[in-house]
């Protein structure tokens, strides 16, 4: 909602109609940041859902909240200079990687149970719970 309201605000302040506004760098930055966030959102939802379902819900939820905060930081950084958005982008990639690895660990545990009868679910939950606070380190 924040991204859409910023896009609407910049759209109203620009002269011209439609999305093609030559010379409006503020609108272009807001529009591009909104599109980038929108394109990354389905991937985020997929890995968040898989990590919570297959591995552990609490670290996945924490990483999901951190990702939303980081995307906000990326968006606001994109409104300034483009170099200000880089830390938010890299931080977001790290969170997506963490969620993907959680999903992968859950899938691996499922196949270990299925083929060998070994269940490492408690170990995986302990490790992910211990690693998730490390996501706060920039």
UniProtKB/TrEMBL annotation:
Gene this chain is encoded by = Alox5ap
Keywords of this protein's UniProt record, alphabetized? Endoplasmic reticulum, Leukotriene biosynthesis, Membrane, Nucleus, Transmembrane, Transmembrane helix
> Mind telling me which Gene3D superfamilies this protein's record contains?
Membrane associated eicosanoid/glutathione metabolism-like domain (1.20.120.550)
GO MF annotations, alphabetized:
enzyme activator activity; glutathione peroxidase activity; glutathione transferase activity; leukotriene-C4 synthase activity
The portions of this protein that span the membrane are 46-70, 91-113
Which SUPFAM superfamilies does this one have?
A: MAPEG domain-like
Q: Oligomeric state and partners? A: Homotrimer. Interacts with LTC4S and ALOX5.
> Which Pfam families does the record cross-reference, listed alphabetically?
MAPEG
The entry's function note states: Required for leukotriene biosynthesis by ALOX5 (5-lipoxygenase). Anchors ALOX5 to the membrane. Binds arachidonic acid, and could play an essential role in the transfer of arachidonic acid to ALOX5. Binds to MK-886, a compound that blocks the biosynthesis of leukotrienes.
Record keyword Ribosomal protein present? no
Give the protein's recorded name.
Arachidonate 5-lipoxygenase-activating protein
Q: Name one GO biological process term.
A: leukotriene biosynthetic process
Main location (coarse class)? endoplasmic reticulum
This protein's record includes keyword Calcium: no
